[in-house]
Amino acid sequence: IITKANELFFLQVYEYDEVMFPKNVRCSSCDLRKPARSKHCSVCNWCVHRFDHHCVWVNNCIGAWNTRYFLIYLLTLTASAASMAIVSTAFLVHLVVVSELYQETYIDDLGHFQVMDTVFLIQYLFLTFPRIVFLLGFVMILSFLLGGYLCFVLYLAATNQTTNEWYRGDWAWCQRWPLVAQPPSAEPQVYQNIHSHGLWSNLREIFLPANPHYEKKKK
Ligand SMILES: [Zn+2]
Ligand SMILES: [Zn+2]
Fold first, then answer.
1. What separation in Å is there between the alpha carbon of 48 and the centre of ligand 1?
2. Of 73, 77, 178, 188, whose Cβ has the fewest other Cβ atoms within 10 Å?
């Protein structure tokens, strides 16, 4: 959180790109100078350094100092959903193999003997173990959703972008380079991320963020 006490420190952390974050802008709510990459959170009503997004699940802003915890949280959440899916699948497969269900036959509506097929097997398992099959379906969907979101968050971490910057990227680009103002021969202009300095440097920034208390102790 940016306050009067740490404002000066945060102003020096990141360079202004003059596209998304222009210099010498004050936050209209806090009346503090806005450091580059910061944003005022309307839910929490304070300015956050390296603002990513306001997370409704943890009911807090995700910014410079807690992006690492958010990443670990998402990673463990995905891992637990995926392991539940693996354990439930292993249980059902084991059950089918041990009871040799796939070798069974059944009598259909017309009175004919039928060999067990996959659809009938799933139907049988659902009727016999409804909670386990329902749980499996649920954790599988959850694993895919969380896994997809985790990939997106890892991509942002690796390329040193915040969700806020990723979202605003196209918008800022359009403002700076409106289509009408561009001559037809002009090369397409791409918004340059000035904060990315290689994968390890980007990850280090998330796991060891700049900290004014730490700076003070060092002196
Ligand atoms: Zn503010
Ligand atoms: Zn917030």
1. 8
2. 188
